[in-house]
Amino acid sequence: MALSSVTATVVLTLIGCGTLILHLVQRQTGTAGLLVGLGLAMVPLPFVLGALAWLNLTARVPLRHTVFCLAWGACAATSIAIVANNWTASYLTRHRGPFGGLLGAGIATPAIEELAKATALLVLLLPFGQRLRCHGRRTGRPCAPLLHRAPAPRRPRPYQRRPAGPHARGRLRLRPYLRPLPYLCPAPPSGGGPHRRSRPRTLAAGVVLGGMTACGFAFTENALYLGRAFTSDQRQRLDSIGLGDPPSLRDFDSTVQTFVLRALLSPFAHPLFTALTGIGLAVTLTTGRRWLARLAAPAGLLLAMVLHGTWNAAADLGTDGFLVVYAALMVPCFVALVCFAAWARARSARHRGRGGRRAAGHSAGAA
Question: How far is CA 7 from the centre of its chain?
């Protein structure tokens, strides 16, 4: 029997974060609000996961990595974001007054949330490969005190050596302290060019990893906001009944508006933000141009923060201002992401078709 210490630690950490986030949400929404929020937050989840699963046919990210990103976004990232956002909001409001609240919603909150979601991608790249092995059957003793760290087999890593050639200094090597993932590997130089390039698969993998993390984050956040709205509407409904007014569906206007805004109009908002971080990280790990490798990941994270901050600021502009930002910014960005996903899927299918024809040609020539 072999027990991965890293896997056990990650699972226990996610379970602890999931318990913490349920407790935090239940404190703000109540039990009824929590159940209603979780139920309504499940509505857009199949559509977002289905779109990411379709793109994953190109990226071919393993299921365990996508599940980890989804759980990290739903449990760990939301726990970090709630605790950090509450502390930052109270600090800024106490020292800056109303301006501090606007500063926290427009700058601090997007930075905290995007960093919390981007941490999942960095965890996947950490070189965790040690395993704890039990040799209880061999010695006849209990397994618990005999768990020890078995040495990992040493395998030659080609990226540790500097490539030879006149353009060797311009190529990017994967760092020895990062784990080489098969879906985040650069393509070999083609067409006589000296630089390696990012493949459609690597860029799609960045979108899938970032989108999965953001999908879990958006699910928990939607449950929180919908649960708050339902609890508030429920209190107003009880007050109206106490005043003698008959109950009606208008008593739940806040819940309906929150559901339409977050679940129907913007289910892909958070995946769109974090997909920019994933694309930047994929370019950093796979490009052969040193300047692009240094700028891609920070630029993707910064762009995700700016887009997220703009989206948060649009909520304070009223209905007309929100619709303008939604039509002028979010819709074009979403269309661009859809076009990119379709391009990556078609490009990958074209490459597979070429590989199949080449293999059939070689087999025919051999025959």
Answer: 19
Q: β-strands 2-3, 131-133: how paired? A: antiparallel
Contact 93, 100 (CB under 8 A): yes
Kindly write down the DSSP assignment for every residue of 33-48, as one continuous string: HHHHHHHHHTSSHHHH
Got the DSSP string for 117-129? HHHHHHHHHS---
DSSP letter string over 107-158?
A: IIHHHHHHHHHHHHHHHHHS----EEE--HHHH-S-SGGG-EEEPPPP---G
- Poorest-confidence range of 9-18, 49-58, 218-227, 356-365? 356-365
DSSP 177: T
Reading the block at residue 271, the tokens are: 């995946």
Number of H helices, E strands in the chain: 13, 3
pLDDT of residue 295: 92
Rounded Cα gap, residues 70 and 200, in angstroms? 22
Tell me how far apart the alpha carbons of residues 43 and 221 are, in angstroms, rounded to a whole number: 14
Q: Which of 1-15, 30-44, 107-121, 235-249 has the lowest mean pLDDT?
A: 235-249
- Sequence-distant (≥ 6) Cβ neighbours of residue 293 within 8 angstroms: 172, 283, 284, 285, 287
- Compute φ and ψ for 174, nearest 5 degrees: -65, 135
Backbone angles phi, psi at 126, to 5 degrees: -75, 140
Task: Kindly report the number of other CB atoms within 10 A of residue 332's CB atom.
Answer: 10
Would you state the pLDDT for residue 355? 54
> How many C-beta neighbours within 10 Å does residue 327 have?
10
Residue type for 68, please? F
| pTM for the structure as a whole | 0.80
